[in-house]
């Protein structure tokens, strides 16, 4: 008797390892999806600005002079004010003294105080034997009292010592500044040369403080 064995069909065995790996794969894929969503997020930027502005306006500055203490105006180097001497300076003799007042102030548009420097702008002709002084007083004219001596007596006419200065104040509101009253005093010395003639022009240069 021949024994026959039944043929049994078996399913492929994928093993426990394959079954356990499937959840791991899914977990990894799921994790990858989460990372993909996170990478797509963009944070908004916040911005703000501040601005500042300044407005600038220049002031005005102008010096004017007067030979009578009342009427003030411009006296440029091309048309200087003519000093009104108390005695005719055209017939001087040794020992003669002649005086002439002058005043300067800052006009009503000036917005700064000033320092004024006095110097000799030019001299022409012959001035041998003539000297002068320059003083400052409270009132217009050459009467006493003298409040300040800017150039001491005996200064050779046609020259000015260095650093001769005085102060000027600006006005208030629509008023000009208070004037500074000056007096030129010219003296004919003993060595005055006969028949000579000459002129001297002084400069008053104002600089804002």
Question: What is shown here, in short?
Answer:
It is built from one helix and eight strands, in the order H-E-E-E-E-E-E-E-E.
Essential attributes:
mainly beta, elongated, disordered N terminus, 5-stranded antiparallel β-sheet, Immunoglobulin-like, 209 residues, 3-stranded antiparallel β-sheet
Write up this protein:
A hairpin with an 8-residue loop joins β4 (130-137) and β5. This protein has a domain at 63-208: Immunoglobulin-like (Sandwich). The chain is 12% helix and 33% strand. The relative contact order is 0.21. The chain is built from 1 helix and 8 strands; from the N terminus they run αββββββββ. Residues 1-10 and 29-37 have low confidence and may be disordered. The N and C termini lie far apart (143 Å). The chain has one helix at 15-39; strands at residues 63-66, 97-106, 114-125, 130-137, 146-156, 164-168, 180-188, 198-208. It is mainly beta and 209 residues long.
Number of strands: 8
**Main sheet record:** 5 strands, antiparallel
CATH architecture of one domain: Sandwich
Radius of gyration: 50 Å
Helices, strands, pairings?
Elements: H1 15-39, E1 63-66, E2 97-106, E3 114-125, E4 130-137, E5 146-156, E6 164-168, E7 180-188, E8 198-208
Antiparallel strand pairs: 1-2, 2-7, 3-6, 3-8, 4-5, 4-7
């Amino acid at each position: 008797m021949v024994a026959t064995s039944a043929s049994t069909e078996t399913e492929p065995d994928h093993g426990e390892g394959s079954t356990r790996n499937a959840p791991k794969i899914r977990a990894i894929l799921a994790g990858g999806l989460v990372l993909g969503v996170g990478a797509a997020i963009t944070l908004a930027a916040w911005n703000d600005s501040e601005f500042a502005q300044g407005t600038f306006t220049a002031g005005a500055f102008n010096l004017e002079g007067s030979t009578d203490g009342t009427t003030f105006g411009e006296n440029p180097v091309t048309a200087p004010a003519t000093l009104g001497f108390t005695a005719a300076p055209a017939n001087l003799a040794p020992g003669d003294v002649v005086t002439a007042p002058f005043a300067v102030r800052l006009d009503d548009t000036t917005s700064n105080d000033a320092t004024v420097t006095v110097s000799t702008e030019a001299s022409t002709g012959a001035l041998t034997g003539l000297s002068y002084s320059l003083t400052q007083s409270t009132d217009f004219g050459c009467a006493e009292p003298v409040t300040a001596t800017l150039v001491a007596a005996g200064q050779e006419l046609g020259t000015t010592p260095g650093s001769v200065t005085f102060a000027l104040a600006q006005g208030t509101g629509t008023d000009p500044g208070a004037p500074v009253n000056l007096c030129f005093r010219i003296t004919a010395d003993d060595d005055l040369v006969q028949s000579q003639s000459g002129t001297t022009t002084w400069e008053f240069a104002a600089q804002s403080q």
